[in-house]
């Protein structure tokens, strides 16, 4: 059972129709996707909340379908994260947290994904926002190049987050950018995702990794290798990391997540296998070709 896993593993969403006959049985209806997803993975990125807030009815339905051990990393809406002043959005933050309150501890950590325009000059603003945030778990993703330059800006950011036990989300897009395919999905992903150095951190009990993969599953292995060692080490230290697998159009995200887990099992003897839902055998392996 995924409740027994010593780390959290998932995909960017649960609602991909393309996962029928690979992750989900072929006859799975969209309304059943979440209930099926939580049988295999124990976490998901809350990308949907970045673009649109769910209705109260939708949140209530999620609460019914998500088991207590499941983790939903809800992104703060972009009108908050991409505003001119985070501290002017505190009422919006309170409303958003109240909306998701029925999910309880399943929402952790919240994610604040800052735009590339959020520069070191706004660190005092970020510090003030964090002071108002409170005790709920929070993870922050930065994209401004100066936060990756190993200079004063990065040191100040890391000190701010470390002192408050706030995780710095690590996005690793190296596998994606190693791909030379001209497929529209790949080009779109390469245009959308940041191309920045990796910064594996453990400022809290739950380090956060977003792995943006190559569309050919086997091509990801050399890029996953250091992360397998890192995640295994974190688990052995008593931490509980989060790992989210992406591919260019996310059609193969579940297969990539499974591949990561299967290789992690070789480093951590006794790690249970992920459950496998019943799908058509001849279709189950399509994503591995």
UniProtKB/TrEMBL annotation:
InterPro entries: DUF72 (IPR002763), UPF0759_sf (IPR036520)
Pfam families for the chain: DUF72 (PF01904)
Gene3D superfamilies, per database record: Protein of unknown function UPF0759 (3.20.20.410)
Coiled-coil spans in chain: none
Record's protein name: DUF72 domain-containing protein
Organism: Ectopseudomonas khazarica
């Amino acid at each position: 059972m995924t409740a027994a896993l010593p780390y959290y593993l998932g995909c960017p969403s649960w609602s991909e129709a393309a996962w029928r006959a690979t992750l989900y049985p072929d006859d799975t209806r969209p309304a059943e996707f979440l209930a099926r997803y939580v049988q295999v993975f124990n976490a998901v990125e809350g990308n949907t909340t970045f673009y649109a807030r769910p209705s109260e009815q939708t949140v209530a339905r999620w609460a019914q379908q998500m088991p207590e051990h499941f983790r939903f990393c809800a992104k703060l809406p972009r009108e908050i994260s991409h505003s001119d002043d985070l501290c002017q959005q505190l009422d919006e933050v309170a409303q958003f947290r109240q909306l998701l309150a029925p999910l309880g501890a399943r929402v952790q950590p919240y994610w604040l994904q800052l735009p590339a325009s959020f520069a070191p000059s706004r660190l005092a603003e970020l510090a003030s926002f964090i002071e108002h945030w409170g005790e709920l778990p929070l993870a922050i993703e930065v994209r401004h190049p100066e936060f990756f330059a190993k200079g004063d800006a990065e040191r100040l950011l890391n000190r701010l987050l470390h002192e408050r036990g706030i995780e710095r989300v690590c996005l690793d897009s190296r596998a994606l950018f190693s791909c030379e395919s001209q497929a529209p999905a790949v080009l779109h992903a390469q245009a959308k995702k940041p191309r920045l150095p990796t910064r594996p951190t453990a400022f809290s009990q739950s380090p956060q990794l977003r792995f943006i993969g190559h569309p050919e599953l086997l091509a990801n292995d050399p890029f996953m290798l250091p992360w397998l060692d890192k995640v295994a080490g974190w688990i052995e230290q008593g931490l509980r990391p989060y790992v989210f697998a992406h591919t260019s159009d996310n059609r193969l995200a579940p297969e990539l997540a499974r591949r990561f887990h299967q290789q992690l099992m070789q480093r951590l003897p006794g790690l249970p296998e992920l459950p496998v839902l019943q799908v058509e055998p001849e279709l189950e392996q399509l994503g591995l070709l």
